Automatic annotation (TrEMBL):
One Pfam assignment: DNAJ_related
Taxonomy, superkingdom: Bacteria
Name of the featured protein: J domain-containing protein
InterPro entries: DnaJ-related_N, DnaJ_domain, J_dom_sf
Keyword set, alphabetical order: Chaperone
PROSITE patterns membership: DNAJ_2 (PS50076)
Domain J: residue ranges: 151-206
Chain coiled-coil ranges: none
Transmembrane segments: none
Length: 206
């Protein structure tokens, strides 16, 4: 049985092209937009498969391949003094020193990293497994894991039970507290904004 490895599925200049995309989007790029760019630039790869964004199993495989490649790239960038933040809503590259002293739980708590670097997950996940995942997501926020929600709640210094109204109230409090115009940290504001996107996808908007 043929067991492809990541290098079989990724184009040779994948890293170089992704880095150029991130350089053109210093504020970050979301996963869906990056996949569309990859599909246009690499038409003979999984990213350009007709079902890449429709068929559940192909969507999972495309998503997993991308995140597997991004986490591998992240490890290599660390050696160059750079940090690659990997999240479905925002993939971006930063100088490591910019966040070294004020790393938040959202950045440090990354329980998904080992999952995406385990290529056996890509090889063994079947259509029925993806259906179970989707069913679980439908009971909460679509495309948002519980680990991501927990990390985002830590950024907001909240504990469940919470609702969309409380999240919005806490967001205003944090923005008022950490806004750069009031002596706050730009990095902290970015973390709060990223956490808000996760929580809104899970809890909805008030």
């Amino acid at each position: 049985m043929n067991r492809p490895n990541p290098d079989d599925l990724l184009p040779a200049d994948f890293d170089r092209f992704v880095l150029s995309c991130l350089a053109d989007a210093p504020g970050g790029i979301d996963e869906f937009s990056l996949i569309k760019v990859l599909a246009a630039h690499f038409p003979d790869t999984l990213f350009a498969e007709p079902g890449a964004l429709r068929d559940p199993l192909t969507l999972f495989q495309t998503h997993f391949l991308l995140f597997h490649a991004l986490y591998r790239l992240s490890d290599r960038l660390t050696e160059q003094g750079l940090e690659l933040q990997v999240h479905a809503l925002s993939i971006r590259m930063l100088p490591r020193g910019q966040v070294a002293e004020q790393r938040t739980l959202l950045r440090e708590a990354d329980p998904l990293r080992s999952y995406y670097l385990d290529w056996e997950q890509w090889l063994t996940t079947q259509g029925e497994d993806v259906e179970r995942l989707l069913k679980g997501f439908s009971q909460g926020g679509a495309g948002v894991s519980r680990q991501e929600v927990s990390a985002a709640l830590e950024v907001f210094e909240l504990r469940e039970p919470v609702d969309a109204r409380r999240i919005k109230q806490r967001y205003r409090e944090l923005m008022s507290q950490h806004h750069p115009d009031r002596g706050g940290s730009t990095d902290r504001v970015q973390d709060v904004n990223q956490a808000l996107l996760i929580l809104q996808r899970y809890y909805g908007k008030p």
